[in-house]
Amino acid sequence: MALTTFHDLNNIFDIIDGIDKFDNVFFRNKYDNMFFRHMPPVDLKENDMDYILTVDAPGVDKNDIKINIDHGRLNFSYERLNDTQHNNDRIHFSEKRYGKVSRTISLPKNIIEENIKATYDNGILNIKIPKLNTNSTSRNITIS
Asked: Is 1.20.1300.10 the CATH classification of the domain at 34-82+96-133?
C-alpha cells in the first residue's frame, strides 16, 4: 500500500480549480465544446402576429451586429472583442467568451421579409419577423 502525500489546499482558487476540473470531466455540457461556443444562445417565440427571435449579445456594439436574409434564411453575426486589460494581474479563471459568432435560422414561408425589424438594448438583440395575415374567412362554395 502506497502512502499519499497530503497537499495543503490553503488557496481557495486551487479548490475552485479542482471542482471545475471534476465538473468538466464528469458533467460536460453539450454546449461546452468548440462548435457551440461560437453560436450565440437564442430564443424563438411566436404570437398571432409575429415570430420573435431573441439573441444574447452582451458587450457588443450594435453597429458591429450584421443581419441579413438570403433565400429564406436569416443570418446574424457579430464579434465580441476582449477589452479586458490585464496589466500584471494573474487571471485565475475567465468564463467570458470572445470572438466571432454567427447563426443562421431558416425562416418559415408565412412571413413578410421586407417588414422584419431589429432592435438592440442592454445586450439583447430582438428580431421581429411579421407573419402574413392568414385570417381567412370561411365560406360555402356552390357547385354549378
From this structure: no
